[in-house]
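Morning!

This is the sequence you dropped in the shared folder:
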Amino acid sequence: FLNVVPVIALRSICRQSPAVSMIPLLQGTQRASFVTLARSSLLPSPSLNTTSSSQLLQLPALQGVTGSSQTTRSVTKFSLVKGKRKTVKAVLKRFKRLEWGAWIRTHSGRQKKLFKKSAALKRRLKQHVFTNATQSWLLDKMVTNYWRRPKHYINDPYRPYHRRDEYFATQTKTFKV
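The structure's back. Tokens below.
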């Protein structure tokens, strides 16, 4: 049975700093220490009158509660409105799909610290990079069928790269009439 502690009591607990050695930690996490505190009933009972600082305990600092700075770009498999799969917009912003199934992207870090890069490296950074088969397969799963179909744009700068005739699997078929 867990004691219910109001938010005001938790705020007052976090502000005070008496003996922390009384808190048994399971794994050093915020949640584990809170559960341990609640089970051992070390938390003060909620009351309107003020309690002395010797009765309050300090919870561990919030080190990783808000999450890391790494963003997740997971796929929405079923949207709330129509129940359909949704495209990850970050993929469309960063990558371009060629007609034969490969994805290309610009080189990472191409605009950073150019003053210390050689001319040859600056030239190579202007070129595009192909993704490997695993990355292409993953990107194909992150977009819908609409974005996997070939798109034809006027004056497309990627037009020469949409064909790959030197490889058997992506060779265009010519028909004799």
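Headline: The longest strand covers residues 103-106.

More detail when I'm at my desk.
O.
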